[in-house]
Amino acid sequence: MTRAAALSLHELSYLCGGPRRAVLTAVLALCQSEQLEIGADGRAHRLDEVGWGDALEQAVLDVVPSAGLELESIVDAVAESKAMRATRGMLAARGLALRWFPGLTGAGRRARHEVLTNPPEGLRRIAVLGAEAIQDAQLRRTLTDPTYRQRLTLTPCQTVELTP
Question: Which domain range does residue 57 map to?
Answer without folding.
Answer: 4-9+11-143
